[in-house]
Amino acid sequence: MKQINPIFSGIYWLTTLALLVIGVVMVFAYTPTEVTMGPVQKIFYLHMPIAICTFFSCMVVFIASVGYLWQRKAMWDHLAHAAAQVVVIYAAIVLLTGMIWGRAAWGAWWQWTPRLTFSLVLWLLYVVYLVIRPSIESSQRRAMICAVYGVVAFLDVPLVYLSVRLMPDIHPTSIELEPAMRNTLLFWFIPVTMLTVGLITASFRLAKRQAACNVIRELPMPKSKTPRPLGTPLSSGNRGVV
Amino acid sequence: MMLLLRQIILLTGKDLRIEARSRQTLGLVIVLGILIIVVLGLGLGPEQLTNGASATAALWVAYLFAGVLVFEKTMSVERHDGALASLLLAPIDRSVIYVAKLISNLILMLILALVITPVAVVLFGFDLSAAPWQFVMIMAMSILGFAAVGTLFAAVVSSTRLQGGLLAIVVLPLALPLVIASTQMMIQLFRDGKPIGGTGLTVLLAADVLYLVTSWLVFELILEP
């Protein structure tokens, strides 16, 4: 397995962390507080980049699933699994930040608005992807079922988006942003995108290592050629015979 | 073309003959559907029973759970005595097997709908007279999409240990666009008195085409004895 240079990896994560800290500082020190929503509006700088990166991760799941169906290489399955984990975490963050926004804007934690419903269904679609994986024992069968599901789930996303638009909407469709707010929002896309790529890569490498460990674990154990010393107890498997 | 049609009719006939002789699926799913309608009716209480949207929602719950059972049963018969292995050895294109299974499932779902829809209409006091044909059209389109994706995943899941439970978990979230679009259209049609069309019909049509085409393409790859 090709290793990523640990120094490069360390620099990447430190840069991401530093940019996130700068982003937080910009949110509280640089951007003005919105008049109607107050401080709760600051959630928006996290909410929107995470939502966009959720779709990016969904696309990675889709491409990897198509790759698996095409080439039947385990690598694609590991990549799809890694991206699906990120989708679930990110969709949960989008859902939670959306609910906090909704509580401040509409006075209720949950409203059946199109966008909240869309986030919920998206989260559910990919939670199911993760839930079904451990229940299938054969690794090839698991990869196949998950690849088919990954393709259909991604194609389902635009349908969910269109269908929820039939519901009555109270969500803001467009927001006028001041230059400071716009700059902060654009800045937040950098660390969040880096975080997404980093998380998918780290999870992918972990999945590859786990698969390699499973292969080693399934290899037959070599028989010991050294005779059992006198006086040592018999193994439990031999006791019944003796 | 005629050969393909003959193969589809033969395979569908085989599935329906097995069902007619064993009677193991339809009786079970019809009773399950009625039970779901009754339980939801009792749970919702008298205030909600005259609401058209409640009847549609109850019908959907019954269709979804009974449908999953139908898909699972029609595919599990192929697992007995190596029937699927024999079917795969036969000189038939695998997409023909998918189409035949889909038609069998659709016929069983149609019989199920013909029994439990009147039950829900009566128990929920749902007045269909305003737009009966639109109701039938929306439900038929929704069931087609649901059966398309259900048939695919029944084949995928049938070789695993969990089967029924896993199939429900996989298929239900994928059916959500159909549920959302059809229930919203029913609300527009029966509560607000607006004609159907636009986005709702587009979603149902797009879902049907998408699920049918994807399932037809992927089925060939996933079928294993």
Care to describe what's here?
The complex is a heterodimer of chains A (242) and B (225). By secondary structure, chain A is mainly α. Chain A has seven helices and no strands. The model of chain B has no long low-confidence stretch (mean pLDDT 85). Chain B is built from nine helices and no strands. By secondary structure, chain B is mainly alpha-helical. Chain B has one domain. Chain B has helices spanning 2-22, 26-44, 46-49, 52-76, 83-89, 94-123, 132-157, 164-191, 199-222. The interface between A and B is medium-sized, with 29 and 35 residues.
Question: What's the quick description here?
Answer:
The complex is a heterodimer of chains A (242) and B (225). Chain A has seven helices and no strands.
Q: Report the uncertain regions of chain B.
A: none
The span between the termini of chain A is 46 Å
Biggest interface, CB < 8 A: A-B, 29 and 35 residues
Radius of gyration of chain A: 24 Å
Structural class of chain A: mainly alpha
Tally of helical runs of chain B: 9
What is the overall pLDDT average of chain B? 85
Overall 3D geometry of chain A? Answer: globular
- Determine the mean pLDDT of chain A: 83
Q: State the end-to-end distance of chain B.
A: 27 Å
The number of strands of chain A is: 0
What is the ordering of alpha helices and beta strands of chain B?
A: HHHHHHHHH
Low-confidence stretches of chain A: 236-242
Percentage of β-strand residues of chain A: under 5%
Helical coverage of chain B, percent range: over 70%
H-E string of chain A: HHHHHHH
- Shape designation of chain B: globular
Show the helix and strand layout.
The complex is a heterodimer of chains A (242) and B (225).
Chain A: H1 6-30, H2 44-71, H3 74-106, H4 114-132, H5 139-164, H6 179-218, H7 236-239
Helix pairs in contact in A: 1-6, 2-3, 2-5, 2-6, 3-4, 3-5, 3-6, 4-5
Chain B: H1 2-22, H2 26-44, H3 46-49, H4 52-76, H5 83-89, H6 94-123, H7 132-157, H8 164-191, H9 199-222
Helix pairs in contact in B: 1-6, 2-4, 2-6, 4-6, 4-7, 4-8, 6-7, 6-9, 7-8, 7-9, 8-9
